[in-house]
Amino acid sequence: MERFSALVTGASRGIGRGIALELARAGCRVAINYAGNAEAAAEALGLVREAGGDGFTVQGDVAVAADRERMVAETVAQFGRIDLLVNNAGVAPKVRADLLESGEESFDRLYAINLKGPFFLSQLVARKMLEQAPDAGGMRGRIVNITSISVYTASINRGDYCMVKAGLAMMTKLFADRLGNDGINVYEIRPGVIATDMTSGVKEKYDKLILEQGITPIRRWGKPDDIGRAVRAIAEDRFPFSTGAVFDVDGGFHLHRL
């Protein structure tokens, strides 16, 4: 996979960094997208190189059209092609507000970053992939959307987040249907409770739910590299006859249990 190239959004830290590192361990070249933390992105690039991969950092806000176009252009200029797009960049509400109190500003922010941005970035990348020669297995590319258990789990104090993640799940199905006969497979990875800076503020709550109450059959927090390993398996073409598939990486949270 030494010539395999990937663009990972939000790759400077958290789940995105875990994905970038696993791809690096497979020998991939990784475009590490970040919105504002250049220092974290540079650190992630150093770790990617230590892990056996290579790449570069590319600043860009996925919610901004010009940034999306530049991210794609720079990735193609650096690598010659994009074999994998990972739509990972995402934000949580700044304030967890009751469904009857949440405002438009939060909704618009989450929609722009978590759904609109990935949709139009996928559109741009898919067009580039369609221009690429297929690899030995007949593939022109792969797109992976990182969603959440919030796709189907109602949280009434962050309804905007749940709604846009559910939209991203439907986006996976739509792009999978559109591109399936063109050598571009599309997948959804659905993380559970993952230990990142985004979840650090609710650590005490989830420690009790996971470790004491057993909300997940596998009684531990998820780690960014748990998600990274799933993305790596897709990058290594372990699922060539699957598209639109959902991979639950959640410690078994999705199971209905009595």
Overview of the structural elements:
The protein has 258 residues and is of the alpha/beta class. It has a single domain, classed as Rossmann fold (3-Layer(aba) Sandwich), CATH 3.40.50. The protein has helices at 14-25, 38-50, 65-79, 104-131, 159-179, 203-212, 224-235; strands at residues 5-8, 29-34, 54-59, 84-87, 141-146, 184-191, 245-249. A seven-stranded parallel sheet has the order 3-2-1-4-5-6-7, sandwiched between helices. β2 (29-34), α2 (38-50) and β3 form a beta-alpha-beta unit. The longest helix is centred in the middle third of the chain and has 28 residues, at 104-131. The mean pLDDT is 96.
Gyration radius, in Å: 18 Å
Q: How much strand?
A: 15-25%
CATH topology: Rossmann fold
Average pLDDT across residues? 96
What's the β-strand tally? Answer: 7
Per CATH, the superfamily is NAD(P)-binding Rossmann-like Domain
Q: Strand count, sense and closure of the main sheet?
A: 7 strands, parallel
SSE ordering? EHEHEHEHEHEHHE
Number of separate domains: 1
- Low-confidence region ranges: none
- Helix-strand makeup class: alpha/beta
Shape: globular
> What's the CATH architecture?
3-Layer(aba) Sandwich
Give the strand line-up of the largest sheet.
Answer: 3-2-1-4-5-6-7
The helix content is 40-55%
